[in-house]
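ok trying again, last paste got cut off:
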Amino acid sequence: MLMFETILVLLLGATIVSTIAARLNIPYPTLLAAGGALVAFVPGAPRMDLPPELILALFVAPVLLDAAYDASLRDLADNWRPVTSLVLVAVGLTTAAVALAARQFAPDMPWPAAVALGALLAPPDAVAALAVLGQVDPPHRIRKILEGESLLNDASALLIYRLAVGAMAAGSFSLTGAVPTFAIVVLGSVAVGWLLAWLAGLLIGRIEDAPRSVIFQFVITFGVWLLAERLRLSGVVTIVVFGLTMARRTARPMPARLRLPSFAIWESATVVLNVLAFTLIGLQLRRILDALGAAERYRLLGGALLILAVVIAVRIAWVMAYHALAQWKNRTFGVAPGRTALAPPTLKGGVLVAWSGMRGVVTLAAAMALPASFPYRDFIQLTAFVVVLGTLLLQGLTLRPLLLLLNLPRDATIDTEIQLARQAAIKATVAELDGRDTPAARRLKLEYAEALALNQAGHDPREREHNALRRDAVAAARRAISDLRHQKTIGDDAYRRVEEELDWLEVSAGPAGD
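nice, full thing came through this time. structure:
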């Protein structure tokens, strides 16, 4: 019962923290990290131990699938150079630099353990960065670079992490043997992820109610990860390919009445997983700190702070170096033709990307997933939390002021593409109705013709007025049916049915302020 009560308190605290973060324009992972640090000093806090083999599946699989589903292959292709530089070079440099720093701090730390530490600290978490970036509307290209990095760097970093942990268990590491194995694992994971997405797409299109659809989505997410691990493939690569493929299937698309609640539940699940991850690592820290003397405690914290500085410095150095190389290439050879020619890299953009290196739940999960007998496990977990907390506080709290200071130009890419998509959708609707001459068809054609005219006019004030009037009308309708239920003229069955119809009308009007 104590554990259940603890979880309830944590979730209530997370709700309050998220509300405060939204009001203060602070990314909620920053306050969660601070809360996790406080948990470590709560007297009498219960222990929450999970098997290491469960932790990555529980915390990483849903987060990766959610990111893969939302990723844009077109934008990844447009920005493949900067994304690749962050996913491969930045991850590799961070892993190597952290491993060297760890060995300097603890010379008897085995190299595989040092590399595992570097790998789990290498991937930034874009949740915090995008939470801030969404508040100030940054250039589309920067947003997509960070989203692409957050999706793919987890795969590259956790593959290195897995090799390092395996080498530690085996007691040796052979590069000649690891490279072919690495290639087989990646190719096999891609194939299995694609095949499972094809099979899941056939099944999910036949589920017609929201509860079963959401349950199936979570079951298949964890099932894909566990199957990949059973086959000794990469759960990370398999999940990423699975999510990318599922997002682009066109056969039997999910209807809106299933998709809307699914998105809301997935967003809630991501917040819950972040809460549990920060809480678990906080409880682990209490055990670690209690077992240390004061002098040793400060020594390990000093080593963790040193590695925090290395992590931040390596990212800044590489992003700035890449920016200089890209500028030299553009001056020497010209800008490559294509969509990206419209948005060449800028120094301000480079500064923003360099400072968007906050670590998050993937780093914490990888640290907690280390076997109990892993060398320097306590120091690695302590360092992981210090780096996550340090980057979220230092960078997370200063990213918004930095954005305002840089004063980046407004990017209308998304607005332009939304207008284009709406026009195409409305024209297709009108064309579908052209051959029909019923009164209902004529009314619909008039309504869509007006919508097309408003959309072609851009941000027409009439559209905003139309949406505001619709929201006011829906509010009046809600009051009317509530009065009928209060007067016992209608029962709850009729009330809920009409309430659902009004919900759809309110959603079609968009959020307040649009």
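cool. Residues 180 and 186 are 10 Å apart (CA to CA). DSSP finds 21 helices and no strands in the chain.
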